[in-house]
Amino acid sequence: MQKQPSKAQNTAPSKIQAKKTAPKKILIFASGNGSNFEAIVKHFQQKAFKAKVNIKLLTDNKNAYAIQRAKKLNIPYFYVPFENLYDFLKPRAKEYNLYVLAGYMRILPEKILKLGTVSGIQGQKKQNKFINIHPSLLPEFKGKNAIRQAFDAGAEKTGVTIHFVEKKVDSGKIIVQKSVAIGNKTLAELEKSIHEIEHKIYPEIIENLLFKKNILLFGGGAREHALAQKLSESPFLDTLYMANPNDGFKYLGKTIEFTPSGDTRADFYNLAKKARKLNINLLVVGPENPLFEGIADIFQNEGIRTIGADKKWANLEGSKSFAKNFMLKNSIKTADYRVLEGEAAVSKHSTQIKEALEYFKAEYQTPPVIKADGAALGKGVYLPERFKEAEFEIKKFLEGKFGEASKKTILEERLFGKEISLLSFWDGKTLLSFPPAQDYKRLLDGNIGKNTGGMGSIAPAKISAKEQKQLEEYQNNLKKALLKENADFKGIIYSGLILTKKGVHVLEYNMRFGDPETQVLLELLDTDLLYIFLKMSDKKLDKIDLKFNKKKAYCMVLASEGYPDSPKKGAQIKNLEAAEKYNCKIYFAGVSKINKHQKSAQEQDFSLPAKHKAADYAGDTFITNGGRVLNIVKSAFSGKIALDKIYKTALEINFDGKIYRKDIGKTYKS
Ligand code: GAR
């Protein structure tokens, strides 16, 4: 008997595609050879697409070999001299979903491009239907003979770019790029590699543009605001659904109210069912708690792919002892440690605490770091200066200072060095990392005061070439360990690292995007985030390049007086317009809106670069409703300018009890 695929094998997308809809129509423009045209046709002639995609060819050249291909492939074609193109397209403009330029050697005038612009109707984004493929890494080597241009210039690498077509030649928003190393290749070999990539990537991107995806983003903090913003910029997005966004970013998509009933797993199960009904293709999980509860496993069982670790691997964050075991087994450097657990350790006659402290005294002469074994919102860490203080604090942890999370407590050798956060995408096979970031964990300037969820962040963190090499080694070790342990999930791995004299050590793992590191890292990411997620869900992360720009990004958190213990709430936030004045972004966290002016997606102009416009808040009144209230984010090639604008914005945005650190941008060693 044939083996039935299990539900967990991601059957959802095919089911969704099976839904009966009118066929998509594309018009491919080619002037010559037409090999891309043929690759696209063959892709959509596969059974899965046959009735769903209707292709025609348009050429401006009577002798184009593309015409021979069209005849062979049974594809209708139009020969349209360029001077007749506008008249030909005008009556047909609405007929096609996409205009695909594939070796069409003409510059399209604005009036033709306008025929391909669909303005935002019924809550849809404004769209440009013209796309082009170009054989270089734009903006390098524009124009004709781009492969040869790169070859003759002695470039180390070149590649392929797919982009929307705009007025200027080979410009327009980049959809995707894939690089090719030139190395010792002859020109002919280079051309062959480039064409091979083109033939794979162009059909795939067209498919993603024709069959856009519905995403559900879970979580309602500033990190999720940043993720929602980035996802909403993707041309591959149909509808962004959000489970419990805060009032500050609801306008970016459709809200699904998620009301916990006390039975979290049942709630997730119901949410997954709802997601199925809404044809949601992918769940993206922001915070850690749903992962600990197994949201990824539940959705996966319902056939919905998830970006976020399964229950087992969420333990790398959820249980410090699980993480320590993983590291020890796999020779990943981490601090020496002892585990204390339960009543026994704190009972009157117990000597466990004393003995453990004596061990640290003898070995390291410094008191150990005290960490709750379970997750405690990033706050369950204490750094005692003296042994007596350590003893007192360990007792408090074991007695439940952080509830169940600290009934098991880890004592760790104190390490000294620069702390960095390394966030990586993992698909069960490939690990790709962001540049390192740095966060500001402590409440007060000078890195003192209480531990918080994070008061700010910068990226990239400043590291030396030697440290960069060490980081690469660390990533290789981590990848090897994950493969060896068969960590078959798709998600984010956040390595909290310390760069010591004895090399890179892991302080902790988080299994989700860091908050507020994400807010700065997304500023550096030039690759489409949804495309990355889709590749991850196909376990094909190895097939893409992550592209980062060379900017410096900063994030400052404005918090409420009393944070992190008992923040004041209910103060009106004034002068949010300052963000626009200084060209900074705002990501909201602990806010609520008191008037319910709801902006529709239709009012947003998605064709503009992501920037917060005063109009986004016009008519809105926000009040504080949490510890971390909002983030001010800015990136620029000059770090000094970016920081200056952030500080000016922070000064002008106002609410009662506003607190923030005045040393964001400074590097500290612990
Ligand atoms: C492709 O390499 C495409 O990238 C390039 O023309 C070739 C067409 O080949 N396009 C440009 O240079 C656009 N500026 P094909 O006709 O065999 O598909």
Helix content: 25-40%
Structural class estimated from helices and strands: alpha/beta
Strand share of the residues? 15-25%
Number of helices: 21
Bound molecules: glycinamide ribonucleotide
**Mean pLDDT value:** 91
Looking at the structure, what is the overall shape? elongated
Number of strands: 32
What is the gyration radius calculated from CA atoms? 27 Å
Major sheet size, sense and barrel closure: 7 strands, mixed
- Low-confidence stretches are 1-18, 597-612
- Sheet with most strands: strand arrangement: 3-2-1-4-7-8-9
Report how far apart the termini are.
Answer: 61 Å
List the helices and strands and how they pair.
Elements: H1 12-17, E1 24-29, H2 35-44, E2 53-59, H3 65-73, E3 77-79, H4 85-89, E4 98-101, H5 110-115, E5 117-118, E6 127-128, E7 130-134, H6 146-152, E8 157-164, E9 174-181, H7 187-210, E10 213-218, H8 222-232, E11 237-243, E12 254-256, H9 264-277, E13 282-285, H10 289-292, H11 295-301, E14 305-307, H12 311-318, H13 320-329, E15 337-341, H14 342-346, H15 352-364, E16 369-372, E17 381-382, H16 387-398, E18 408-412, E19 418-426, E20 431-433, E21 438-439, E22 442-444, E23 448-451, E24 456-459, H17 465-484, E25 491-500, E26 503-510, H18 517-524, H19 529-537, E27 552-560, H20 578-581, E28 585-588, E29 591-593, E30 622-624, E31 628-636, H21 639-652, E32 658-659
Parallel strand pairs: 1-2, 1-4, 2-3, 4-7, 10-11, 10-13, 11-12, 13-14
Antiparallel strand pairs: 5-6, 7-8, 8-9, 15-18, 16-17, 16-18, 19-20, 19-25, 21-24, 22-23, 24-27, 25-26, 27-31, 27-32, 28-31, 29-30
Helix pairs in contact: 2-3, 2-7, 8-18, 12-13, 15-16
The structure holds glycinamide ribonucleotide (GAR).
